[in-house]
Amino acid sequence: MSAHAWHPIAAARDLPPRHVFHAKLLGQELAVWRADDGYVNVWENRCLHRGVRLSIGLNEGQELKCQYHGWRYASRTAGCTYIPAHPEGAPARRIANRIFPVIERHGLVWSALETPPDDLQTSLPPDPLVLREIAIDAPAAIVEPLLAAYDPPGHGPRPIFFIQPTDSESCVIRGVIPEPPPTDTLALLRLHDAALCALRDLAEQRPAA
Amino acid sequence: MITFYEDALCENCYAVRLLLHMLAVPYTSHFVELYPSRANLQPWFRAITPLAELPVIDDDGVIIAGAAPILVYLAAKHASGTWYATDTPALAQVTHFLTLAERLSATAGAARRHESGFAPTDLSAAHAGATRVLRGLDAHLWFAEQQSQAWLCPTPHPTVADLACFPHVILCEEGGTSRQPYPALRRWCDRVKRLPGFLVMPGVFLTAPPKT
Q: Which phi and psi angles does A59 have, rounded to 5°?
């Protein structure tokens, strides 16, 4: 669970145009948004002005605008481009939000809190079937052995699972099926969803005090 | 002319206000303060509705109380076939989500009233109940998106089901329930906010206009 490793933090289709996705990785809150040119921004979820969450802000296509006092930040650089209280002056160049590395690949969006040493290494195809993410109120260490024992329902293909550690008490299961059957993918998604929700119930059962 | 008895901070009143504006139905607002004066317990309001709860409308003598019945009444009267469904499965689907909205009000809504409305409740039970419903709604909407459906019911037009659930979902963070684990619900909130006639209430913010 290294801060230097790539973790999936969203599905690619979680980021429609003009939406701000609210993610969390290893306790760090993230505002994730796709610019109109397709570029995915992964930023600290905090306006530099008053600290309000940028995940409630406005994705205006090229810029993210804070909901409270309208500070604007540019896609890619996260540099502040406009401060409504100072309409005449350009913001200082050093005013830029904290950005995190990002790769959009295999139907998922990947990030890391610190610079990862290498490019993302997986054997996944470009466009696998992405299961619905399952957010679990239990630590990744509890979920890991349960996932290792996961029995694919209906004798179907086994998904490849990634565990996104949201913080020390919770995680998200992100599964992909590399080569899904050509038909009935919705039924397959539902089968896995039901099985993973049952797995979540197990993971969230706290041992009796 | 409709008289709408409402409180600006009441999420159930917000659901009705949204539909009144989206349908552009004229009405007169009559403010009934829930907190701190508890004006809803005054005899004059009890004479209108024995339950003494908001919201209530008086449509030229027809008194309807409660968010879901008012939504159904207004939609069936002014927008049958769009905001309200009349065919058999859709009618049941709308009703399903109207009942889930009531459950949200009793859980996420109760937590919000505990935190900001001085109405004590069992907070951990309220949070657990809210989590159960929100998880179900999020999964439902994720699969709806997979089938290119935008709304709670599989209809091309949003229904009163969306408006009944929306206030509880969009205000749940005031009660201490984060929406961060519910990405499909968050995208649905954006879609509701982009409906013509949408308006905010305290604690609710606009989203960016759609890409053109």
A: -85, 105
